[in-house]
Amino acid sequence: MCVTLPATVVSVEGDAAVVDVDGHRLTASTRTCRDVAPGESVLVGLGVILARLDPTEADRMAADLASVAGASRPSPTGGGRR
Predict the structure, then answer these.
(1) Which residues does 81 contact at the CB level (< 8 Å), separation at least 6?
(2) According to the model, what pLDDT value does residue 45 have?
(3) Cα–Cα distance between 66 and 52 in angstroms, integer?
(4) What is the mean pLDDT of residues 32-61?
(5) To the nearest 5 percent, what fractions of the chain are helix, strand and coil?
(6) Rounded to two decimals, what is the model's pTM?
(7) How far is CA 9 from the centre of its chain?
(8) Nearest to 7, CA basis, from 39, 34, 46, 32
(9) How far is CA 15 from CA 10, 18, 32, in A?
(10) What is the pLDDT, as a whole number, of residue 80?
(11) Does residue 20 contact residue 47 with C-beta atoms inside 8 Å?
(12) What domains are defined for the chain?
């Protein structure tokens, strides 16, 4: 299974880009998606930039992932779903 995540390009050097995924900086290959630029929204999977994303789509994906992650976490008070 491959998890893909929306990210924002921070910097690009050669065939690699530093991307920000929810506050975490990662290095991703740009070989499959050339000419990305800082500030662009992208989809990252397995350390590779797979596609450019419309910023609205990237925000929606991030919100959906946060919603799913929140639903799977136990409540600090012991209630809620797992």
Answers:
(1) 71, 72
(2) 94
(3) 20
(4) 94
(5) 20, 40, 40
(6) 0.78
(7) 10
(8) 39
(9) 14, 11, 9
(10) 47
(11) no
(12) 4-72 (2.30.30.140)
